[in-house]
Design a protein that fits this description.
alpha/beta; Rossmann fold; five-stranded parallel beta sheet; 12 helices; 12 strands; 16% strand; binds D-malate; amino-acid biosynthesis
């Protein structure tokens, strides 16, 4: 009987699905890298979220591993080249938490534009600082969306629903498809920077997207731009972001992701015009139930019948 490990905290539905499909399951959440190394050779499949890291060393020790399933989108915690070299399939659930992540992106944009966290702290502290928290309206302004994958597309639709003009950049999307979504596309990022009042990024972190927005880009942007990132830390250069927020060139930022995570402290957290959340992109009950069920079904399908989905 194939045996799977659930290595990160996820909905108990995952375990139920595995058992219903006749697989043996161990749930071992919060293992240290050494503990994982010591037991990884017992499993045919592993279900993870973002906490468990599977570097080359863990993959090398996984003598019977056939499939790694990420309940979520990003697989940056897995050494995917090392896995493919061993013939281990790495799959994710690209749709299960897209709506939830898109909703967070829009929430961060609105919270940043209206200083919601700082105003909440002030009001709860017994102050009544109406003039301190003068905000910005989004309607009628231009939003730039970089990356029109499952999340970016939903964010673009929602921003359009707030009466923003949405201009998008995605070198991989079919232009007709974008136009049918009612979006204006630009071919070059240089054309996007000076136009946007709000920028939100929805790409993976890779050599093309790391530091995509650096000091030179910030200099090309409108005075008072709002930046949002619920994709991956490092797409905005954090020093450039900090300098822009301090100078006022960037009005506010809504951030869910950071170069170093967990981020227990950060110079960006010292700024009132930063709305910061602890990588909550996929964290709603609905999304977590969906991704847990989906990844358990996908892993089971592969181990039981060899069916590959979302690899
Ligand atoms: C994802 O990659 O699925 C999101 O960043 C959310 C998460 O990590 O849980």
């Amino acid at each position: 009987m194939a045996k799977v490990l659930i290595a990160d905290k996820m909905s108990p539905m995952a375990e139920e699905v595995f058992r219903a499909r006749g697989l043996e399951v161990d749930v071992k959440v919060g293992m240290s890298p050494d503990e994982l190394l010591a037991c990884i050779d017992q499993y045919d499949g592993i279900a993870i979220r973002s906490a468990t890291r599977l570097p080359a060393q863990a993959i090398a020790a996984a003598s019977r591993l056939k499939v790694i399933g990420r309940a979520g989108i990003g697989v940056d915690n897995v050494d995917t080249p090392a896995a493919s070299q061993k013939g281990i399939i790495v799959m994710n659930t690209p749709f299960g938490n897209a709506i939830t992540t898109a909703e967070l992106g829009v929430t961060l944009a609105m919270a940043a534009a209206r200083h919601i966290p700082a105003a909440t702290a002030s009001t709860k502290a017994g102050k009544w600082e109406k003039s301190r928290f003068m905000g910005r309206e989004l309607a009628g302004k231009t939003a730039g969306v970089i990356g029109l994958g499952n999340v970016g597309r939903l964010v673009a639709q929602r921003l359009a629903g707030l009466d923003m003009k949405v201009v998008a950049y995605d070198p991989f999307i079919n232009k007709d498809r974008a136009i049918s979504l009612g979006l204006e596309m630009v071919d070059k990022l240089e054309d996007l920077w000076p136009r946007v009042d709000l920028l939100t990024v929805h790409t993976p972190l890779n050599d093309h997207t790391r530091n995509l927005v650096d000091a030179k880009v910030v200099a090309q942007m409108k005075e008072g731009v709002i930046l949002v990132n619920c994709a991956r830390g490092g797409i905005y250069n954090e020093d450039a972001l900090y300098d822009g927020l301090v100078s006022g060139k960037i009005y506010a930022a809504g951030l869910d992701v950071y170069v170093q995570e967990p981020a227990y402290s950060h110079k960006l957290f010292e700024l009132d015009n930063v709305v910061a959340t602890p990588h909550l992109g996929g964290s709603t009950k609905e999304a977590q139930t969906r991704v847990a069920i989906q990844i358990a079904e996908q892993i089971s399908d592969y181990l039981v019948s060899g069916v590959v989905k979302n690899a």
